[in-house]
């Protein structure tokens, strides 16, 4: 792997963002709306609670972490879609660029864009709604790492889906986080779900993050074993995602799909 080629992918995304304010706004606009909306919802819910329970760390903290996961996933997918929209695949892969270098460039681009969203969310949640991250302690770091790894894996799989089915398949990509959120148990315990949904939750790394988040808010300690299992699943998912993308890419090259890639290329 040559890091100069990886840097070229990242630099291209930087130039795209620098040259288009319309691309910059989504980096912080949607997360701002989410944090403000859920922040006022948690304040409203706190007016009804009869105990010392505080909805801010339970709900607003969950929203922040879930939005971070979505930003990571969409950071990878959007960087890939820039090449789809510009029909730039043939130009990129006519170079000596390898699949691993291309995916690494997408991942590094996602790190940059998702970091902007995370910073905005942290500032809003802390200064406006009083969310104290000291409540979670250092365990917040593995929370973010697990969600980051799974977001990367899901973003790569989403990119493979678009590469296989054509640009129109991007409409299958955006609802993926919403489809996963019931199984990830973002806002409620896993015990709330029926057994068949719990079986799905056990293979989703975010479910371990949010179960531990609720445990901390309830005054208990986080489960190191559960977090380790979630981290191992996330790393495994990254490996599977890379394998899937490479397989789809090689098929696209073998069948000639990559040379005639357009909105009608679905076979």
Model description:
Helix 3 packs parallel to helix 6. The protein has helices at residues 3-18, 21-24, 29-46, 55-85, 89-93, 99-127, 140-165, 170-173, 176-184, 195-201, 205-217, 224-255. By secondary structure, the protein is mainly α. The two termini are 31 Å apart. The protein has one domain (3-260). Helices cover 73% and strands 0% of the residues. The model has no long low-confidence stretch (mean pLDDT 85).
Strands, helices and their partners?
Blueprint: H1 3-18, H2 21-24, H3 29-46, H4 55-85, H5 89-93, H6 99-127, H7 140-165, H8 170-173, H9 176-184, H10 195-201, H11 205-217, H12 224-255
Helix pairs in contact: 1-6, 3-4, 3-6, 4-6, 4-7, 4-11, 7-11, 7-12, 11-12
Note the main attributes of this structure:
mainly alpha, 12 helices, 267 residues, globular
* Count of the separate structural domains: 1
Shape: globular
Radius of gyration: 20 Å
Q: Uncertain regions: pLDDT < 50 for 5+ in a row?
A: none
Succession of helices and strands: HHHHHHHHHHHH
Averaging pLDDT over every residue, what do you get? 85
- What's the N-to-C terminus distance? 31 Å
Tell me about the biggest sheet? none
Note the total helix count. Answer: 12
Class per helix and strand makeup: mainly alpha
Helix content: over 70%
Q: Which band does the percent of strand residues land in? A: under 5%
Strand elements, count: 0
């Amino acid at each position: 792997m040559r890091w100069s080629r990886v840097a070229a992918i990242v630099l291209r995304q930087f130039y795209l963002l620098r040259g288009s304010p319309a691309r910059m706004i989504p980096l912080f606009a949607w997360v701002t709306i989410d944090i403000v909306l859920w922040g006022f919802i948690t304040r409203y819910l706190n007016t009804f609670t009869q105990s010392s329970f505080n909805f801010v760390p339970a709900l607003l903290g969950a929203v922040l972490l879930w939005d971070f996961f979505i930003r990571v996933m969409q950071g990878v997918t959007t960087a890939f879609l820039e090449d789809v929209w510009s029909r730039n695949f043939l130009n990129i892969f006519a170079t000596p660029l390898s699949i691993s270098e291309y995916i690494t460039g997408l991942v590094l681009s996602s790190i940059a864009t998702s970091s902007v969203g995370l910073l905005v969310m942290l500032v809003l949640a802390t200064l406006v709604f009083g969310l104290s991250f000291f409540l979670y302690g250092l365990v917040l770091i593995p929370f973010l790492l697990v969600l980051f790894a799974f977001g990367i894996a899901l973003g790569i799989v989403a990119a493979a889906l678009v590469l296989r089915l054509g640009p129109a398949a991007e409409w299958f990509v955006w609802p993926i986080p919403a489809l996963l959120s019931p199984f990830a148990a973002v806002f409620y315990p896993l015990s709330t779900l029926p057994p068949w949904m719990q079986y799905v939750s056990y293979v989703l790394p975010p479910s371990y993050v949010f179960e531990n988040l609720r445990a901390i808010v309830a005054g208990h300690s986080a489960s190191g074993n559960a977090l380790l299992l979630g981290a191992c699943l996330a790393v495994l998912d990254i490996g599977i995602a890379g394998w899937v993308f490479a397989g789809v890419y090689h098929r696209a090259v073998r069948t000639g799909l990559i040379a005639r890639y357009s909105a009608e290329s679905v076979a």
